[in-house]
Design goal:
Elements (H helix, E strand, L loop, with lengths): L2 H8 L5 H17 L6 H8 L3 H7 L3 H24 L5 H18 L1 H10 L5 H26 L8 H22 L5 H16 L1
Helix pairs in contact: 2-3, 2-7, 5-6, 5-8, 6-7, 6-8, 6-9, 6-10, 8-9
Length: 200
């Protein structure tokens, strides 16, 4: 994980040990899955005692929740910044699509974790869904506004917003199937046609 990604995902103020616990946990959760990753494995890879981990995070689940919150915060903040610079709903939706594609190219492990943990009935699954639904609601608000202004045709704003989020997960599937890096411009063009042609 390069320096810029560290700064964006977990900020400048996190001390070195907590940062390392966070990074190693994210890698292990993404590669092995949450359940298959133990606190013992995290501490062994990080090279710290359990007591040190528990000083920074009360549990493995707290590490997970923190990871999801910070990742979704980055996604929402990126969308808010980009959509604030354009005026029409079409332009805003194009920016959202582009942000999602760029997030998958930079933070694949984060997206893997979200995609795998949004399902289920454990508290962490519920927490993950809550964060995702908060993001979808942001998209839905933009779509509703566009419908009220007559910029896009009437429809179910929640379904459309959910479909746009699904593209986020679909990027990961495409990347795994293609076994190559995502061509941002190519994927953006395909998704814009797929979504915008159905709502304009």
């Amino acid at each position: 994980m390069n320096k810029n990604i560290k700064q964006l995902l977990i900020g400048e103020d996190m001390n070195r040990t907590k940062r390392k616990i966070f990074e190693i946990s994210m890698d292990l959760f993404a590669k092995k899955g949450y359940d298959a990753t133990s606190v013992e494995e995290i501490t062994a890879v990080v090279g710290v005692a359990k007591g040190t981990l528990y000083y920074h995070f009360s549990s493995k689940e707290e590490i997970f929740n923190f990871l999801v919150e910070e990742g979704m915060k980055l996604l929402i903040n990126s969308v808010e910044i980009k959509t604030s610079k354009v005026t029409t709903t079409t332009e805003k939706l194009k920016e959202i699509i582009l942000v999602q594609i760029k997030i998958i190219t930079k933070y694949e492990n984060f997206v893997r974790i979200i995609a795998s943990q949004i399902w289920g009935t454990e508290p962490r699954n519920n927490h993950c869904r809550k964060q995702v639904f908060g993001y979808i609601k942001k998209i839905e608000e933009i779509i509703k506004d566009g419908m009220e202004k007559g910029e896009i045709r009437q429809g179910n704003s929640r379904i459309i917003a959910s479909e746009i989020f699904i593209l986020f997960c679909n990027d990961l599937i495409y990347k795994l199937i293609a076994e190559e890096e995502i061509d941002v411009e190519k994927i953006r063009s395909e998704y814009e046609n797929l979504i915008l042609n159905n709502i304009l």
